[in-house]
Design goal:
Blueprint: H1 2-25, E1 40-46, E2 54-55, E3 61-62, H2 64-75, E4 79-85, H3 88-97, E5 102-107, H4 111-116, E6 125-134, H5 143-148, E7 156-157, H6 161-172, E8 182-183, H7 188-197, E9 202-206, H8 207-215, E10 228-242, H9 247-262, H10 265-273
Parallel strand pairs: 1-4, 1-5, 7-8
Antiparallel strand pairs: 2-3, 5-10, 6-9, 6-10
């Protein structure tokens, strides 16, 4: 009996030891890659800027930038992206406090943002930029036309991406600058209403926002379409913005984005979510 017990204990040890060994080396789900390298969780802050970032019918984050970031995540096994919806000001505050690692808010490059945050080398998208203007100004075909005629610009936020575009325009056109009134009120609905009513004459912004908000029959502001139109004047690169101390993450992002640009994925996503290839405008009058 003792011999049998001894043989049984030896057999049991032979079975258990490999299991213990596997348990020590196998990566816990969601915490390590297949090679045993720890996976770093990356918090991506986003807002509602349809069709760039928004919530789908199933309550999941989507949009052209979100879907691009999901594909980037797949190319980076050492990272795991999680998505956190918030207001734009809270997202940027989260970048500074360390609660958010990447902000994707259809952001343009500005010097103020570059001083505070980290921009990668590769942009994630392109916007067709234009005048959001009262239809009565039928002779205004460019931003320079609006400046020469001294049309009244809707007040805008200091440091906003569109503010940066106008500052750049004024550098390029010192003889015909746009007068830029500033405000701390960023109510987009109110701004469109002011243009339709004639309180102000124009604003600037991306074409896709005009199309989804005003031009579309299901748009929130479609009732203003009889009074407001869009006049294209250029394009602008858009970026995800990183925390200052996330250079390694930004470098990994750059490598992944280059692949998605080269294989045409970003063009495909633009066609799917926006309806046209915004990347075709990358070389035309870019701000």
């Amino acid at each position: 009996m003792k011999l049998k017990h001894w043989k049984f204990a030896l057999l049991l040890s032979a079975l258990i030891l490999p299991l213990i060994s596997c348990a020590k080396t196998q990566a816990p789900a969601g915490s390590e890659t297949g090679e045993g390298t720890p996976v770093k969780q990356v918090v991506v802050g986003y807002g509602i800027f349809k069709p760039i970032t928004y919530i789908d019918d199933n309550g999941e984050p989507t949009g052209v930038d979100i879907e691009a970031l999901k594909l980037i995540d797949e190319l980076l096994p050492e990272y795991e992206f999680v998505y956190q919806r918030s207001e734009q000001q809270a997202i940027f505050a989260g970048l500074q406090s360390g609660k958010i690692d990447i902000a994707t808010t259809n952001s343009f490059w500005t010097q103020d943002r570059a001083d505070r945050y980290l921009f990668p080398k590769e942009n994630l998208g392109m916007n067709i930029e234009g005048l959001l203007i009262n239809r009565k100004f039928t002779n205004v075909k460019t931003l320079e036309d609006a400046a020469k005629q001294k049309l009244r610009l809707v007040p805008m936020l200091s440091g906003d991406g569109n503010h940066g575009i106008l500052l750049e325009f004024n550098k390029r056109h010192p003889d015909t600058p746009v007068e830029i009134p500033l405000t701390d009120n960023h109510d987009l609905t109110l701004q469109f209403t002011w243009i339709a009513e004639g309180r102000y004459d124009f604003n600037i912004g991306p074409k896709q926002f005009y199309e989804f908000l005003v031009e579309s029959e299901t748009g929130e502001l479609h009732h203003l379409s009889k009074d407001i139109t869009f006049v294209e004047f250029g394009s602008v690169r858009t970026w995800p913005i990183f925390r200052k101390d996330e250079q390694e993450l930004a470098d990994a992002y750059d490598r992944a984005v280059i692949k998605l640009k080269e294989d045409g994925t970003l063009r495909r996503l633009a066609l799917e979510f926006i309806g046209y290839d915004t990347w075709a405008y990358e070389g035309d009058n870019v701000y």
